[in-house]
Amino acid sequence: MVARTVTSQTICGSPDHRQPPRGLGIAVSPDGGRHFTPPAIVPDSSDPGGGTNGSHQGLLMTKLAVSGAGTVVIVNSSLKQGERSRIWLIRGQIGSAGIGK
């Protein structure tokens, strides 16, 4: 049996990719990393209050965990400079159709 591989990435502003990150994407490989699904936006991964995603202090670097049963856990953070920061947890499941909430 070939292990599934899961990866996450930050999503920057579109169409200008020089904009600060505003959400997360996730892709799944059913064949151990040889091929990946197109990245999908992780639901609820952007800050509705307008903060930018990312570890601005460099302390929250590991964001993704996946169990053998397909449970996906993502920790995300955002910062609105001079106003607030927040950290939240997102849980989902990898199924035959991809990732669900």
Order of helices and strands: EEEEEEEE
Major beta-sheet overview = 5 strands, antiparallel
Determine Rg (CA atoms, Å).
14 Å
Share of helical residues: under 10%
Strand percentage lies at: over 45%
Whole-number average pLDDT? 77
Number of separate helices: 0
Structural class, judged by helices and strands? mainly beta
Distance between the termini: 25 Å
CA-based shape? globular
**Domains, number:** 1
Count of individual beta strands: 8
Gist of the model:
Helix content is 0%, strand content 46%.
How is the secondary structure organized here?
Elements: E1 5-11, E2 23-29, E3 40-41, E4 52-53, E5 64-66, E6 71-80, E7 84-95, E8 98-100
Antiparallel strand pairs: 1-2, 2-3, 4-6, 5-6, 6-7, 7-8
Describe the overall structure.
- The protein is mainly beta and 101 residues long.
- The chain has one domain.
- It has no helices and 8 strands.
- The strands form 2 sheets. Strands 4, 5, 6, 7 and 8 form a 5-stranded antiparallel beta sheet that branches. The chain has a 3-stranded antiparallel beta sheet with strand order 1-2-3, with no helix packed on it.
- The radius of gyration is 14 Å and the shape is globular.
Tag the structure with descriptive keywords.
101 residues; mainly beta; five-stranded antiparallel beta sheet
